[in-house]
Structure formats: C-alpha cells, structure tokens
Design goal:
This is Bifunctional inhibitor/plant lipid transfer protein/seed storage helical domain-containing protein. GO terms for molecular function: fatty acid binding. InterPro entries: Bifun_inhib/LTP/seed_sf, Bifunc_inhib/LTP/seed_store, DIR1-like, NsLTP-like. Keywords: Signal. The protein has about 110 residues and is mainly alpha-helical. It has a single domain, classed as Hydrophobic Seed Protein. Helix content is about 45%, strand content about 10%. The protein is built from seven helices and two strands. A two-stranded antiparallel ribbon has the order 1-2. Helix 1 crosses helix 2 and helix 2 crosses helix 3. The N and C termini lie close together (about 5 Å).
C-alpha cells in the first residue's frame, strides 16, 4: 500500500540563502534582497527563536514567484546557512498565501510499505 504525504509548501526554503548570497539589488524570483532579509528571522535556526513573519516579509512573498522559489527546495546549502527548511516551508501559510501547484507537486513523496 502506498502512502502519500506532503511536507508542506516548500517554496520558501531558499529565502534566506538567496539573501545571504545576493549582493546586488537584483530581484530573484520576483523578490528583492530587502524582501529576503525581512523573512530571515522567520526561517533561521539560530537563537533567538524564530519569529512570525513580519508584514514586510509577507508583502515580499505576496509579490514573489513562489513556484520559482520552490525550485530551490532541495538545496544542500540551506542548512549550511542556518536555514531551517521546515520553518521556511511554513511561511506561505503564515502569510495567508496560497501554495502554487508547482510547490505542492514538489513536496509529495510516496512511501511504500509491504
């Protein structure tokens, strides 16, 4: 029997990673460096405890291409930069944003048990 589970909207995993890497004011996936920085406290696994996303973070996410951000979901560098992928995946829901189909498809895994 197959069991289908979803780890949640994986769209925002890259948010802080890009904020740390991008040095210019260029936009990535429709989100500016300032937008990434606004979301950083909400996805950081470093003390102090993560905070709820700010209005600035949610506004930036609202204009971002979440499907594009989903393509960075499995980046191995995210934990290196102190990003908790589980926290990042919670951002769209915390900002009352719909999860794009691209993100939903990427987060499904199939576990088979015999």
């Amino acid at each position: 029997m197959a069991k289908v589970t979803c780890s949640g909207p994986a769209c925002m995993v890259v948010v802080v990673f890009l904020a740390l890497v991008v040095e210019s004011k260029a936009q990535i996936c429709g989100m500016s460096q300032d937008g990434f920085k606004a979301c950083q406290p909400s996805v950081s696994d470093s003390p102090p405890s993560p905070t709820d996303p700010s209005k600035a973070c949610c506004k930036a996410l609202g204009s971002a291409d979440l499907g594009c951000l989903c393509s960075y979901r499995d980046s191995l560098l995210l934990p290196y930069f102190g990003i908790d992928p589980d926290l990042a995946m919670q951002l769209p829901a915390k900002c009352n944003l719909a999860t794009p189909l691209q993100c939903q498809v990427l987060c499904y895994t199939v576990n088979q048990s015999f």
